[in-house]
Amino acid sequence: MSKHDESRRAFLVGAAVGAGTVAGVGLVPDTLAQTQPQHTPASTATPAQPHAGGSGLGAFFNDEDSRTISAFAERLMPGAPGKPGARDAGVPNYIDHALSGAYANLQDFYRRGLAALDAHCRQTHKEPFRQLTAAQQDEVIGALEGGKAPAFMWPSAQAFFNTVRTHVMEGMFADPIYGGNKDFAGWRLLGFPGAQTEFTAADMQSTQPFTRRPIVGLQATAKG
Questions:
Q1: Dist. CA 60–CA 100, nearest whole Å
Q2: Does residue 217 have a pLDDT over 80?
């Protein structure tokens, strides 16, 4: 993993911890409640199911958009041997299902944003984002973050970047019941224990990441 990739991973992990992203397994319901008043409460939420192979036609994205958002998410949270990235954690699956449900009001935002993203990439690199090299994708993402992509009208380049980054963090660190954080990849990265029914005295006094197994998610507690 390059220093650039390591830095980006460290930033997202640090942002997740600093913002209290994993303060509870109800992260996604709490987040969505701020933007989608009609969102299904956590107690009755339907678990998201991953797509076969993780690409192709999904709940919202078509094949091309699925590959584009997968590539974008992976550059925001790059994977490496022993270190899960966005694809490993099922982040694209989380975003896809969110846009077909609780984030349905952002469908046009994503459609226009993805179209503008490819327009910018074709202007600057003659290829759509999903076909660029990792270095070129990083360059494009940097341009979006800095608001230097004139192909974007609405949403703005910065708004699109900030929204996708937020959704990548949600998909990486929220409870797996919502379609991301596959095999607790994000929680393992942070040493977050999930919805444990009890903690020992040693657990409560420890200043180290929680490592005792199993990590428990909402689906397991609902079955109990």
A1: 5
A2: no
